[in-house]
Amino acid sequence: MARLGRNRHHPPAQVERPLPDDVPTQIDVLKVPVHIACVMDGNGRWANQRGLPRTEGHAAGEEAIVDAVDGALALGVRYLTLFAFSTENWRRPADEVKFLMNFNENLLLRRREEFSAKGVRMEFSGRRDWRVPRKVLRRMEETEFMTAKNTTLTLTLAFNYGGRAELTDAVRQIVESGIPASKIDDRTIGRYLYHPEFPDPDLVIRTSGEQRVSNFLLWETAYSEFVFPEVLWPDFRRQHLYASVLEFQQRQRRYGGLSS
Questions:
Q1: Domain 33-163+201-248: homologous superfamily in CATH
Q2: Where are the domains of the chain?
Q3: Which residues fall within 8 angstroms of residue 183, CB to CB, at 6 or more apart?
Q4: Cα–Cα dist 149/147, whole Å
Q5: HSE on the CB side for 36, CA within 13 Å?
Q6: Rounded to whole angstroms, how far apart are CA atoms 119 and 122?
Q7: Distance (Å, rounded) from C-alpha 82 to C-alpha 204?
Q8: Quick check: 5 pLDDT over 90?
Q9: pLDDT digits over 205-220, tens only?
Q10: Which of 52, 79, 105, 228 could form a disulfide with 35 if both were Cys (CB 3.0 to 4.6 A apart)?
């Protein structure tokens, strides 16, 4: 049975600590999001603007991933979830899908030791089914094992992930477990999500200016704050992360109630 996570709407408060010099002084260290999720959008448009194949945009996005991780570490963010490959992305041209499979495998080989040395635990969220190449699945399992004891930041790559697929899988497990309908509530469903131990995202960032959820963390983002910077993902850097956090800190989060 999946584990019941901590209170998903109200994660523990941040501990006050000095921030690095490159972090804007306006950021309140006590109000830094515990969990930030990112839809890494705009790789294809970035490549098209430069007359390059779409795959070059995906490759250029690696530097943005590394800088986003470093920015999250600088802020003291505890969870960072990146939408790497969706259940709908299998519909893309075969050559692009093949590139993305190889790119994600090689990304792990290139970066996992670097991330691990910084205290980053790496996790993966999504279906590990027949469509994912076995070599990619092996790299994922290896990476989870080698970084399992790290505690500074949990970096989750949503890979072969879809919000509807996650909810479908949760319902299937609930039915298979024999829980009667009268006993099912939101906490029951929460226990059967892919990572019930993670707090819900406080902040969701979608780059490129597009304002869609795109089947990403449908259950978990019920009370998240969304920010939509215009920058395309390959050009995203920690300064854009900091700006998004500053915007987040201007919001009032009521969770359906009234502010005091």
A1: Decaprenyl diphosphate synthase-like (3.40.1180.10)
A2: 33-163+201-248
A3: none
A4: 6
A5: 28
A6: 10
A7: 10
A8: no
A9: 999 999 999 999 999 9
A10: 79
Amino acid identity, residue 249? Q
d(CA 260, CA 258): 6
15: left (phi over 0), alpha (psi -120 to 50) or beta: beta
Residue written as tokens 């279906």?
Answer: 127
Instruction: Extract the tokens encoding 90.
Output: 């299998």
Q: Which residues are catalytic?
A: 41, 89
* Amino acid sitting at position 15: V
Cβ proximity of 14 and 29 under 8 Å: yes
DSSP E strands, 67-215:
79-86, 120-125, 153-161, 203-206
Long-range Cβ contacts of 19-22 (<8 Å, 24+ apart):
19/74, 19/75, 19/76, 20/74, 22/74, 22/238
Neighbouring CB atoms inside 10 A of 249's CB total: 16
Res. 20: pLDDT tops 90: no
Q: What is the mean pLDDT of residues 226-251?
A: 97
Query: Among 50, 162, 163, 43, which Cα is nearest to 103's?
Result: 43
pLDDT tens readout for residues 69-112: 999 999 999 999 999 999 999 999 999 999 999 999 999 999 99
First to last CA, the chain: 38
| pLDDT tier, 1 (very low <50, low <70, confident <90, very high otherwise) | very low
| Mean pLDDT in residue range 44-61 | 96
